[in-house]
Write a structure and sequence with these properties.
Largest sheet: 8 strands, mixed
Structural class: alpha/beta
Distance between the termini: 97 Å
Helix content: 25-40%
Mean pLDDT: 87
Number of helices: 32
Length: about 1050
C-alpha cells in the first residue's frame, strides 16, 4: 500500500528543486546573442506547465481549467486538456487566473536626467545664446537644442533591474522607454523588464517611436512659447521632407547647387514622415490634442495622443480625429474644502475634474476609441496604480477594456502585437497570475509576474477555500471517509471523529501537522497536504514520519475561489454623472446656441454705421445668421421676434488689438524675427474672458502676437463663439497678418543687463533687421517663382506673403520718427500696413500714414506711462480721424475689452467726434483695418448678424449689453446669465458637499492633513529672482498660465505695453 500511494502523487519537494534551476536559462534561451562563448556554456533549457489555471488569452475570452505550456521564454501552447510533454516542470496554479503581462505604453525608466522633461537647459541669463544652439555638440545635430530626434533611448538606457521592480510588481512585463525632454525629444525603445542578464538583453526593439512634446522654457532660447514650439516642429518636418528629397534627387545640378549639409536630426525624422515610425505626442492639457492632431494631419503622421486625463471634455473631437490615446490614472485628490479659503478659491472646473477624472477612461471606451493605460503622472505608482485602476473600473470602465488597455492596445501601438499582449502560442512568456477579481476587488491579489519565462513571486497563490466538508477516498484501499471543516479565511480546522487538526495555507496548498494519527489513518502520520481544484476536486496525501505518502482524492462540498465576504459589504460606488458642456467650469455650453431660421429684432434704435445713420424705432431681420433687411414696420411672419423698444441695437464691437485666449505666452520672446509662429495654433477657447467680453458687446477680436520682436508672429482674427473649440473660434475668411513692433520693446537696451544680448539694440538696428529680412524674403520668393528646389522656410514664407500683398502688417509703434521710418519702408517694398498699433504720436504724422492707406489703432486716453509715449495725448484718435486715417480704439487688455463702448465715448470729450464717429472707432473702423468690413462692423443686408442689444445709448456709462448675437446665435443674454449663475452656485455646492464627504471618508480632515494643505506652494528660486529683478516679466509669466484660469488681467499701465 505504501509504495503504490507514494507513486500516485508528485512530490512538492521535487517540484521545488526543478523550479530553482538557473532563472537566466529562460531569458538566455530567448536571446540571440553576439557575445563570444568562453569556457563550457551553461545552456539549461526550461520548460514549465502551468496547470489548473483560469486563462484569459485576450480580453473577452476565458479558458477554464486550462494549462499553459512555456518553453524557452515563450508560450508554446494554451488550452484545456493539454497533454504535458515529458520534461516539463509542472506548477499547479490552484485555479488562479492568468492574464497577459502588462505593457507600459510610455515611461522614462532608465533614462538619464537630460532625457526627462525639463532636462534640456537653456542658455545662462545675460549671455547671448548661440544662434546655432548645438554648434559645440559632436556629430551633425539640429541647430536647436530642443530638437534632438536622433536621440535614442536604447543608446543611453541605464537599465537597472531594481528600478524596474516597482513596475514589474504592478504586473508590467514590458515598457516603452521614451525621452521626454524638449520638443522633438527623440526615439523610444521597447524593453523587457527582465531581472538578469546584460543590459542589452532588455531591449526588445530599439527605435519603435518618436516623441514630440511642448517642453519649452521661457527665456532667450528659441522656442520660448507654445506657438514657437509648434513652429519648430513644423519647420523641422518640412526640413526633413526637403532633406530626404534632396538626398534622393538625381537631377541636382552639381555645378550650381549648393552642397547639401548633412543632418543626423533630419535623417532621423525620415521614418516618421514615411509612416514607419509612430509618434507619441505628449499633451499638457486637453487642447494639445487638437494642436498635435493638426500637425499629424498636415504631415500625415501616425500619431498617438498621450493624454492629460481631461479627454472626457473633448470626446466629440477625439471621435472625429480617431487617434489612439494613452491615458493616465493620476486622479486628483478631494480638495481640502473644510478650509474656507480652499472652498472659496477652488475653481469649479477643478471640482468637476475631481469628480469626473475616474470616469475618463470609461468615457473614452464608450466613445469607441483605442487607448492604453499608463502609470505616467502617478507620484507613487506602487501605491496608486491599482486603487486608481479599480476606481476607473468602478466608474464604468469594463474590465475587458481595462485589460485590453494594459495588454493588447499598448502592444499594438508599439507594433509588437505578435509577441506581447496576449496569452497565445508564439508570444513571449509574459504573464500575470492573480485573482479573477484583480480589476475590481480591493482585496484581490497579484501572485506572480512572469517576464520571458522568468517567474517573480509577489505572494503565495491562495488555495481554493474548502467548504464545510470533504468527501475523500484513499487510493490504496479504496476506503472512504468524510472530514468536517470549520473556521474561515486562511485558517480552518479539520474534524475527523475525536481528532482535530488545524489547517494552514502553505505555498498554495492546505497543510496540517497532526500530533497523532487519527483513527484509520496510516500509523505515525506527520503531515496532511491537499489542494482543491476546479469544481471542488480534491487531491492530496498523508505523509508518515519515515517519508512514505498515502494519496487520496475526493470532492469539497462548497469549493470557491473567492475570498470570504465581508460582514459589512462596501457600499456600491456612486455613479458619476455624465459630463456635459464646454468649456468646463462656469458658463459651460452643452451645444452652440441655436440659430433661428429667421429672427426679427423689432422697435430698436438701430446704429447702422452706414449712410442711413441711426434709425429710430427700426427693425432688423436676420435669416440663417445673416442680416437680410433693415427698416421700419417689417412683418414678423414666422420669425422669432425680439421686442427691443427703448433699447439700442448696434453692430458687435471689434477689438483690433487683443491678447485674450492665447495659450502659454503671447510672445515668442527669443529671436528678433519670428514670423513663422502663429497665434492661430494656440487659441484657448476656455479663457473666461471670452464670455466676459461678450457681456461687454465684443463679438470679434484681432489676437496679436506680443511686441517682443521687430518682426513677430502671425495674428488670428476670431469670433467670440463661447462654447466652441479652438477651431470654432476662427473668423473664417479673415485676412491674415503679422505683428511687427518698434521701440523699446524690441531693442530692449534699457531693460537691464540680462536683456542686452539680442540684436538689435538700437532703433537703427530695428530698421536694418527688417530691411535685411524683406530682401531675403524677396530673394526667396524669386527662387520659388523660378521653380528652384528651395527649402521651405516658414519664416521667409510669411514675409514673402506680405510682399505679395497676401498678408497684412500690424505694427506696434509710438514715436513719430519710427512711424515715418516704417512708412518709408512700406513704400520701398510695396507692402500693405493694415494698422499702426498704439501709435501715440500718430497725430504728428497722420498725413503720411493716410498716404499709404494705413490704419491706426490707439488707446482712448493712455499717455505718459513711459518715456517713449511722453508726447501721447488723449486727442490722438480724433486728430488722426480728421486727417483721413481710419482709426480705432482697442483694449490691449482682457479687462478693458469689457468696456470698449466707454472707451469710444471718450472721443466725444477728447476731440469732439460725433456719436456715430465715436461708435465707429470700436466697430466699423477696426473691421476695415482687419479687412472684414464686408462681414461685420455695420448693420446692413448681407453682413453677418453679429449684433448687440444695449439697455441704453451705447456710449453711456449706464448702458449694458443685454444680448449679444454672433452669426445670429445668442451667445450672451443677461437673463440667461442670471440663470447660469444660479446653476453655477448649485453645482459648486453639490461638489463641495461631495468633496467634504470624501475628505471625511478618507479621514484626511486631520490636523496633520490641514498642516500639509496649508503649506505655501514652493516657488522656483530662479523664477523668483527673475520676477524680483524686473516686474515687467510678470506679464510674461501670466501669459504662461494654464487653462481655466480666473481671467484676472495681469497687465497694468506700468507693464502692459512692455509686453503687448
Amino acid at each position: 500500500m505504501g509504495n503504490r500511494m507514494s507513486r500516485s502523487i508528485v512530490r512538492p519537494l521535487a517540484r521545488t528543486c526543478l523550479f530553482v534551476l538557473p532563472l537566466v536559462a529562460a531569458v538566455a534561451a530567448a536571446q540571440q546573442r553576439t557575445l563570444p562563448s568562453e569556457g563550457v556554456a551553461d545552456r539549461p533549457a526550461r520548460s514549465v506547465a502551468l496547470t489548473n489555471a483560469r486563462v484569459v488569452p485576450e480580453p473577452g475570452r476565458v479558458i477554464e481549467n486550462a494549462t499553459v505550456l512555456l518553453r524557452d521564454g515563450r508560450i508554446e501552447s494554451v488550452g484545456s486538456g493539454l497533454r504535458i510533454p515529458a520534461g516539463f516542470e509542472i506548477r499547479d496554479l490552484g485555479g488562479a487566473t492568468v492574464f497577459a503581462g502588462f505593457v507600459e505604453p510610455i515611461t522614462t525608466l532608465g533614462l538619464p536626467a537630460d532625457h526627462q522633461r525639463g532636462g534640456i537647459k537653456g542658455g545662462q541669463a545675460g549671455q547671448a545664446p548661440p544662434h546655432d544652439q548645438q554648434a559645440s555638440q559632436p556629430g551633425t545635430p539640429h541647430w536647436n537644442r530642443s530638437a534632438q530626434p536622433e536621440r535614442s533611448a536604447a543608446r543611453v538606457l541605464d537599465y537597472k533591474p531594481a528600478d524596474a521592480k516597482p513596475l514589474r510588481e504592478l504586473g508590467f512585463a514590458a515598457a516603452h522607454v521614451a525621452p521626454q525632454a524638449g520638443i522633438l525629444a527623440g526615439q523610444g525603445a521597447l524593453i523587457s523588464l527582465i531581472d538578469t542578464g546584460p543590459r542589452r538583453d532588455a531591449v526588445l526593439a530599439p527605435e519603435v517611436s518618436q516623441v514630440f512634446g511642448f517642453d519649452f522654457q521661457f527665456g532667450s532660447d528659441y522656442p520660448g512659447s507654445l506657438m514657437g514650439s509648434i513652429a519648430l516642429i513644423r519647420q523641422s518636418l518640412f526640413d526633413a521632407r526637403w532633406y530626404g528629397g534632396a538626398q534622393s534627387s538625381t537631377s541636382r545640378r552639381a555645378t550650381t547647387d549648393a552642397r547639401l549639409q548633412h543632418s543626423q536630426s533630419l535623417q532621423a525624422l525620415a521614418p516618421v514622415l514615411g509612416g514607419q515610425q509612430r509618434v507619441f505626442m505628449l499633451m499638457d492639457d486637453e487642447l494639445d490634442a487638437g494642436r498635435f492632431h493638426a500637425i499629424a494631419a498636415e504631415f500625415k503622421l501616425d500619431g498617438v495622443l498621450v493624454g492629460s486625463g481631461h479627454e472626457y471634455r473633448l470626446l466629440p473631437q477625439l471621435k472625429t480625429w480617431n487617434r489612439p490615446l494613452v491615458l493616465p490614472l493620476n486622479f486628483p485628490e478631494a480638495p481640502a474644502v473644510e478650509q474656507p479659503g480652499v472652498a472659496l478659491q477652488t475653481a469649479l472646473a477643478d471640482l468637476q475634474h475631481w469628480e469626473q477624472a475616474p470616469a475618463n477612461a470609461a468615457r473614452v471606451a464608450e466613445a469607441g476609441l483605442p487607448f492604453a493605460l499608463s502609470t505616467r503622472g502617478l507620484k507613487e505608482p506602487a501605491k496608486q496604480f491599482w486603487p486608481a485602476l479599480r476606481r476607473a473600473v468602478a466608474a464604468g470602465l469594463p474590465e475587458d477594456a481595462a485589460l485590453r488597455a494594459l495588454t493588447v492596445t499598448p502592444a499594438e501601438l508599439l507594433k509588437s502585437g505578435d509577441r506581447l499582449g496576449r496569452v497565445a502560442p508564439g508570444q513571449l512568456a509574459n504573464l500575470v497570475i492573480a485573482d479573477a477579481g484583480l480589476f475590481r476587488e480591493d482585496k484581490a491579489k497579484l501572485y506572480e509576474v512572469w517576464v520571458e519565462g522568468e517567474r517573480f513571486e509577489l505572494a503565495a497563490i491562495a488555495p481554493r477555500l474548502p467548504g464545510d466538508a470533504l468527501s475523500l477516498r484513499w487510493h490504496a484501499d479504496g476506503r472512504s471517509e468524510t472530514w468536517s471543516l470549520s473556521g474561515s479565511g486562511d485558517s480552518r480546522e479539520l474534524s475527523l471523529g475525536e481528532s482535530r487538526l488545524k489547517l494552514k495555507q502553505v505555498d498554495g496548498r492546505w497543510v496540517a501537522l497532526p500530533e497523532s494519527s487519527p483513527a484509520g489513518w496510516p500509523a505515525r502520520t506527520a503531515r496532511v497536504d491537499f489542494v482543491i481544484g476546479e469544481a471542488g476536486a480534491v487531491e492530496g496525501f498523508a505523509e508518515t514520519v519515515d517519508g512514505r505518502r498515502y494519496g487520496f482524492s475526493g470532492t469539497s462540498s462548497a469549493a470557491s475561489t473567492a475570498p470570504d465576504k465581508d460582514a459589512n459589504p462596501a457600499e456600491p460606488p456612486r455613479a458619476i454623472p455624465a459630463h456635459s458642456g464646454y468649456p468646463a467650469g462656469e458658463y459651460a455650453r452643452t451645444a452652440l446656441p441655436p440659430q433661428a431660421e429667421e429672427l426679427l429684432i423689432r422697435g430698436a434704435t438701430v446704429w447702422s454705421n452706414t449712410e442711413q445713420g441711426v434709425l429710430e424705432d427700426a427693425d432688423v431681420r436676420v435669416r440663417r445668421g445673416r442680416i437680410v433687411e433693415l427698416g421700419q414696420g417689417l412683418s414678423a411672419g414666422r420669425a422669432e421676434v425680439v421686442e427691443a423698444q427703448g433699447r439700442h441695437l448696434t453692430a458687435g464691437i471689434v477689438d483690433a488689438h487683443s491678447h485674450t485666449a492665447i495659450a502659454r505666452n503671447v510672445n515668442e520672446p527669443s529671436h528678433a524675427v519670428t514670423t513663422e509662429v502663429r497665434v492661430g495654433d494656440v487659441l484657448d477657447p476656455t479663457d473666461i474672458n471670452l464670455y466676459r467680453q461678450l457681456a461687454g458687446g465684443v463679438t470679434s477680436a484681432n489676437l496679436l502676437h506680443g511686441s517682443a520682436n521687430p518682426m513677430g508672429g502671425q495674428n488670428a482674427v476670431i469670433k467670440l463663439r463661447w462654447g466652441a473649440d479652438a477651431a470654432g473660434l476662427v473668423f473664417e475668411g479673415a485676412p491674415t497678418g503679422v505683428k511687427f513692433a518698434l521701440g523699446e520693446n524690441v531693442k530692449q537696451s534699457n531693460w537691464g543687463e540680462s536683456m542686452t544680448v539680442r540684436y538689435p539694440q538700437t532703433r537703427m538696428g530695428v530698421e536694418q533687421i527688417m530691411r535685411d529680412h524683406f530682401l531675403a524674403a524677396r530673394a526667396y520668393d524669386a527662387s520659388l517663382k523660378r521653380g528652384e528646389p528651395v527649402r521651405r522656410d516658414l519664416r521667409l514664407e510669411a514675409l514673402a506673403e506680405i510682399l505679395r500683398g497676401e498678408r497684412l502688417v500690424h505694427i506696434h509703434s509710438y514715436r513719430q520718427d519710427e512711424i515715418l521710418m516704417f512708412v518709408r519702408l512700406s513704400q520701398e517694398f510695396g507692402f500693405k500696413v493694415a494698422s499702426f498699433q498704439h501709435v501715440l504720436e500718430g497725430y504728428k504724422v497722420a498725413r503720411e500714414m493716410a498716404e499709404i492707406g494705413a490704419g491706426a489703432s490707439t488707446f482712448a486716453d493712455w499717455w505718459g506711462f513711459k518715456m517713449e509715449v511722453i508726447d501721447g495725448i488723449p486727442h490722438n484718435g480724433a486728430l488722426m480721424t480728421r486727417a483721413g486715417v481710419v482709426s480705432s480704439f482697442n483694449s490691449d487688455s482682457d479687462e478693458m475689452a469689457r468696456r470698449l463702448n466707454m472707451e469710444a465715448a471718450k472721443a466725444l470729450r477728447h476731440g469732439g467726434l460725433s456719436d456715430e464717429e465715436a461708435w465707429k472707432l470700436v466697430t466699423l473702423n477696426p473691421a476695415i483695418q482687419l479687412g472684414i468690413a464686408d462681414r461685420v462692423g455695420a448693420i446692413k443686408p448681407g453682413l453677418d448678424a453679429d449684433l448687440v442689444l444695449w439697455s441704453a445709448h451705447p456710449l453711456s456709462n449706464y448702458a449694458r449689453a443685454e444680448t449679444t448675437w454672433i452669426d445670429g446665435r445668442r451667445y450672451f443674454d443677461r437673463s440667461e446669465d442670471a440663470q447660469l449663475q444660479a446653476q453655477i452656485l448649485a453645482e459648486r455646492e453639490r461638489l463641495l458637499a461631495l468633496a467634504a464627504a470624501e475628505r471625511r471618508k478618507s479621514q484626511s480632515m486631520t490636523a496633520e492633513a490641514k498642516a500639509e494643505d496649508e503649506k505655501p506652494a514652493r516657488i522656483d528660486p530662479a523664477l523668483l529672482r527673475l520676477v524680483q529683478s524686473d516686474v515687467r516679466w510678470l506679464a510674461h509669466f501670466g501669459a504662461l498660465r494654464g487653462l481655466y484660469h480666473d481671467g484676472t488681467d495681469l497687465n497694468s499701465c506700468g507693464i502692459n505695453d512692455h509686453v503687448h
